[in-house]
Amino acid sequence: MKISPVLSELRKRLQKFKRYGYDLPASREHILKRAGIRRGTVLEIGTGKGHLTSLLAKKNLYLVSIDMDPASLQTAKKHLKALKRHSRVLLRLMNAEKLRFPSRSFDHVISADFFHHAKRPLRCLKEMMRVTRGILTLADLNRRGVKTMDFVHQSEGKRHARSRIPFPDLKEYLLKNGFNVKSYRHTCHQIFVAQRRNS
């Protein structure tokens, strides 16, 4: 069976990540396992190329995924279409600093590898907290993950984004603002699963 061009390109890049020690599909699976999403409404922050989106789309969920980069959304759309999962996801061009959703409108809000790209991470976190009715899952690169991504981007003649706030500070902010937080680690990631105390 002929593979679509977008899947072929994405798989080549995933192989490159793996050579440098970052197994992205395994990482996304682990993040989802820790998030414990089985049903309900889900908002994904930072669609990217649609790796986590495609896994979420396999579940029977109401799923919205946002990104503020039109090119990323186009790639994600092609990715999802190639996997025949595009009809299960609502992709939206939107800035995470100002989410256009009512407060507490999603059972789950999740992001992976988003916060090191965010220009105003705390503003994004506040918005994510606002629209979360139940559980908020944040995953981002740990030191090993940052080093790995730096190697990959350098091999492509690029520079990878650096976080404007230490990721553990987000956990402290959640704890101070009405959430209980569990912490987990995976090879290249730190993961926080936060639950609203009064949910």
What is the class in the CATH system? Answer: Alpha Beta
Q: What is the averaged pLDDT score? A: 93
Tell me the CATH architecture.
3-Layer(aba) Sandwich
Radius of gyration: 16 Å
Number of strands: 7
**What proportion of the residues is helical, as a percent range?**
40-55%
Describe the strand arrangement of the main beta sheet, using strand numbers. Answer: 3-2-1-4-5-7-6
* SSE order, one letter for each helix or strand: HHEHEHEEHEHHEE
Low-confidence stretches: none
The count of domains is: 1
> What structural category do the secondary elements indicate?
alpha/beta
CATH fold-level assignment: Rossmann fold
Percent of residues in beta strands? 15-25%
Question: Would you spell out the secondary-structure blueprint of this structure?
Answer:
Blueprint: H1 5-19, H2 24-35, E1 41-45, H3 51-57, E2 62-67, H4 70-82, E3 89-93, E4 106-112, H5 121-131, E5 132-141, H6 143-155, H7 167-176, E6 179-186, E7 189-196
Write a short abstract of this structure.
The protein is α/β, with parallel strands linked by helices and 199 residues long. 41% of the residues lie in helices and 25% in strands. Helix 2 crosses helix 3.
Give your account of this protein's structure.
- The protein has 199 residues and is of the alpha/beta class.
- It has one domain: Vaccinia Virus protein VP39 (Rossmann fold, 3-Layer(aba) Sandwich), CATH 3.40.50.150.
- The protein is 41% helix and 25% strand.
- It has seven helices and seven strands.
- It has helices at residues 5-19, 24-35, 51-57, 70-82, 121-131, 143-155, 167-176, and strands spanning 41-45, 62-67, 89-93, 106-112, 132-141, 179-186, 189-196.
- Strands 3-2-1-4-5-7-6 form a seven-stranded mixed β-sheet, with helices on both faces.
- The mean pLDDT is 93.
